[in-house]
């Protein structure tokens, strides 16, 4: 599946300054491993030592947080957009 | 009507309005819990009062105490009003990019404003307040993000109010700021209404946190983890500024003058309504619209108003 991955400001320096990159993936896990394969410097920002998402990082598919879908196994369709964002508070 | 002896007694007990006219699905009812009807115009009066009472009961606040608190506005305003009346000095750490009205309301209630870097958003305000509290052990930080009184007051008041008004609720939808409303009211609802779903809506954070140096500077409130928010929530979604403002304007057509986060909650509620066959959805309008007039949320062209969200914190 052809998907787009949107990167937060803090990750762009690790991806040649790009704010979004195109990827081929059928799940979120595949998209993330593709991303860290292309840009290895992103990995420590994104993933904990056991390979799960860092707790302060949220990943969204079409604006839905994947932690409340099927987490890393959330399936992707052509044209889906993944966003990676730091968790933010309000109030 | 009753005569109230103190403004404290006006906190909570907010109205529930049927706004099913805004439902995209004729088999789904929509109800708005109107938290703007609290004394300072937001849901945060509940939280501020509960935190003040809790800290007085456990002795961490005594007459003349200095309070410091990070806030993107509403909690600060509520603490300033309720705290000053109790004789405390209130200092609020406020990101530089909140609406002018928030700053003005803090001034009305004599709070001291300490500005945190705009480009770090609310996370930067939290960080600075924690540093200041460390440096000034004589100040008291009530710390809405970590204070049990925050989710507890919603468990004790907001949740039961919702069940009393809309006992057949199927979905509860609110904005995610500290997570207090979702956790407290959400847990109460899950314990009392079988099958109810709890959905969180978030503002798009990316634009507001350009100043964060790494993803490690992301922030998950301690109460979210202590109350196991990840297990409680059924869904969490971002609602974009354009959609939030569009929905905020829709609320105005029903006579609800809401802040932008209430619009985001309506947008989430409409998504939920479109995704089910039938249902009864309650969403939280967490504040009135007064504090957003200066950013043209109703009067500017929609695209212009949406673009302001890149510079201004609405949650």
What's this, in brief?
The complex is a heterodimer of chains A (about 90) and B (about 325). Chain A is an alpha+beta fold.
Straight-line distance between termini of chain B: 33 Å
Helix content of chain A: 10-25%
Could you tell me the strand content of chain B as a percent range? 15-25%
Mean pLDDT over the full residue set of chain B: 95
Q: Write the element-wise H/E pattern of chain A from the N-terminal end onward.
A: EEHHEEE
Quaternary organization: heterodimer
Describe this structure in words.
The complex is a heterodimer of chains A (91) and B (315). With 91 residues, chain A is of the alpha+beta class. Helices cover 16% and strands 25% of the residues of chain A. Chain A has a single domain, classed as Ubiquitin-like (UB roll), CATH 3.10.20.30. Chain A starts with a strand and ends in a 5-residue tail after the last strand. In chain A, a hairpin with a 2-residue loop joins strand 3 and strand 4. By secondary structure, chain B is α/β, with parallel strands linked by helices. In chain B, helix 1 crosses helix 2, helix 5 packs across helix 6 and helix 9 packs across helix 10. The model of chain B has no long low-confidence stretch (mean pLDDT 95). Classes of the chains: A alpha+beta (91), B alpha/beta (315). The interface between A and B is large, with 27 and 46 residues.
Question: Which helices and strands, and how do they pair?
Answer:
The complex is a heterodimer of chains A (91) and B (315).
Chain A: E1 2-6, E2 20-24, H1 28-38, H2 43-46, E3 57-61, E4 64-65, E5 81-86
Parallel strand pairs in A: 1-5
Antiparallel strand pairs in A: 1-2, 3-4, 3-5
Chain B: E1 16-18, E2 28-34, H1 44-57, E3 66-70, H2 74-85, E4 89-95, H3 100-108, E5 112-116, H4 121-135, E6 139-141, H5 149-165, E7 171-175, H6 180-192, E8 197-202, H7 222-226, H8 229-232, E9 235-238, H9 241-253, H10 260-275, E10 279-285, H11 302-308
Parallel strand pairs in B: 2-10, 3-4, 3-6, 4-5, 7-8, 7-10, 8-9
Antiparallel strand pairs in B: 1-2
């Amino acid at each position: 599946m052809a998907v787009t991955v949107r990167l937060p400001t803090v990750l762009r320096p690790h991806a040649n300054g790009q704010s979004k990159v195109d990827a081929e993936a059928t799940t979120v896990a595949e998209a993330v491993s593709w991303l860290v394969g292309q840009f290895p410097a992103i990995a420590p920002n994104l993933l904990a030592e056991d390979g799960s998402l860092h707790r302060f990082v949220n990943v969204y598919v079409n604006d839905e947080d994947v932690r409340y879908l099927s987490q890393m196994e959330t399936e992707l369709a052509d044209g889906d957009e993944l966003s990676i964002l730091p968790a933010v508070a309000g109030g | 009507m009753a005569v109230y002896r103190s403004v404290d007694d006006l906190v909570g007990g907010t109205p529930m309005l049927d706004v099913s006219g805004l439902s995209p699905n004729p088999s789904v009812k929509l109800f708005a819990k109107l938290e703007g009807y609290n004394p300072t115009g937001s849901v945060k009066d509940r939280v501020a009062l509960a935190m003040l009472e809790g800290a007085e009961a456990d002795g961490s606040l005594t007459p003349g105490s200095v309070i410091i608190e990070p806030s993107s506005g509403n909690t600060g305003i509520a603490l300033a009003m309720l705290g000053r009346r109790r004789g405390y000095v209130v200092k609020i750490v406020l990101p530089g990019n909140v609406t002018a009205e928030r700053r003005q309301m803090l001034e009305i209630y004599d709070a001291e404003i300490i500005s945190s870097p705009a480009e770090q958003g609310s996370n930067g305000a939290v960080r600075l307040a924690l540093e200041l509290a460390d440096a000034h052990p004589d100040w008291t930080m009530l710390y809405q993000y970590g204070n049990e009184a925050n989710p507890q007051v919603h468990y004790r008041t907001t949740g039961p109010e919702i069940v009393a008004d809309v006992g057949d609720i199927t979905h509860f939808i609110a904005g995610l700021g500290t997570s207090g409303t979702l956790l407290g009211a959400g847990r109460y609802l899950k314990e009392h209404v079988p099958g109810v779903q709890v959905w969180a809506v978030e503002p798009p954070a990316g634009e507001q946190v350009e100043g964060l140096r790494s993803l490690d500077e992301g922030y998950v409130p301690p109460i979210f983890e202590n109350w196991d928010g990840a297990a409680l929530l059924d869904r969490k979604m971002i609602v974009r500024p354009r959609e939030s403002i569009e929905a905020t304007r829709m609320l105005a057509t029903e006579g609800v003058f809401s802040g932008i986060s209430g619009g985001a909650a309506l947008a989430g509620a409409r998504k939920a309504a479109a995704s089910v066959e039938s249902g009864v959805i309650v969403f939280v309008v967490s504040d009135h619209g007064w504090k957003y007039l200066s950013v043209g949320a109703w009067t500017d062209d929609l695209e212009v108003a949406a673009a302001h969200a890149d510079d201004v914190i609405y949650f």
